[in-house]
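Private note to self, pasted from the team thread so I don't lose it. Backbone tokens:
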């Protein structure tokens, strides 16, 4: 039994952490949940994540929920994978900014666009408006990755959201987004995670 266990539904938001685990390279177990069968709302899983959603990660006696938090935790816990920016490095600020920009700004803006919801007053929304969010992300991709040549967990979290958004036509097919996603999809760890998800979904 591995020290790491991912509570996973295939495919879902927990696929982001599946990719992260493949990048980290440490042994892990999968505990599969069926969202269609309501496994995520059963008492045994609600004891792990009271929000009743995936992913959740158990690392020995520690349980972490929320995709970006899990990826940040894994990057810091297993630094030899080279996916984090250590405390004291001035790049850690931008690294953390992009890590949490995806769930706090990009994803809500995309969901608003998908549901055709009118945004409220800008001062009430943590993501301003859709066009502003998209422009900020586009301007942030100035090199191969968000921090230049180093691929980090921030790319994994933000890149997963950009990739998902482009699949569902919620992010415009700008050249910078197309090239960024193409670089991400060339990563062997993402290929392995995608193949695992396809096999799990088929089963």
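Design output:
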């Amino acid at each position: 039994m591995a020290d790491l266990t991912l509570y996973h539904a295939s495919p879902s938001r927990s696929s982001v952490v599946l990719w992260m685990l493949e990048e980290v390279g440490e042994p892990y177990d999968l505990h599969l949940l069926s969202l269609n069968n309501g496994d995520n709302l059963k008492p045994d899983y609600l004891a792990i994540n009271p929000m009743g959603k995936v992913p959740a990660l158990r690392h020995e006696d520690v349980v972490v929920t929320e995709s970006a938090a899990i990826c940040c935790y894994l990057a810091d816990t297993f630094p030899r994978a080279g996916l984090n920016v250590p405390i004291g490095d001035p790049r850690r600020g931008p690294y953390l900014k992009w890590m949490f920009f995806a769930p706090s700004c990009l994803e809500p803006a995309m969901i608003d666009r998908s549901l055709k919801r009118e945004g409220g007053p800008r001062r009430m929304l943590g993501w301003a408006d859709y066009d502003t969010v998209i422009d900020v992300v586009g301007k942030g991709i100035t090199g191969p990755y968000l921090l230049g040549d180093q691929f980090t967990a921030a790319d994994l979290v933000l890149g997963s959201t950009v990739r998902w958004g482009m699949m569902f036509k919620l992010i415009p097919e700008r050249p910078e987004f197309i090239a960024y996603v193409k670089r991400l999809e060339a990563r062997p760890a993402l290929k392995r995670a995608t193949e695992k998800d396809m096999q799990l979904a088929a089963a």
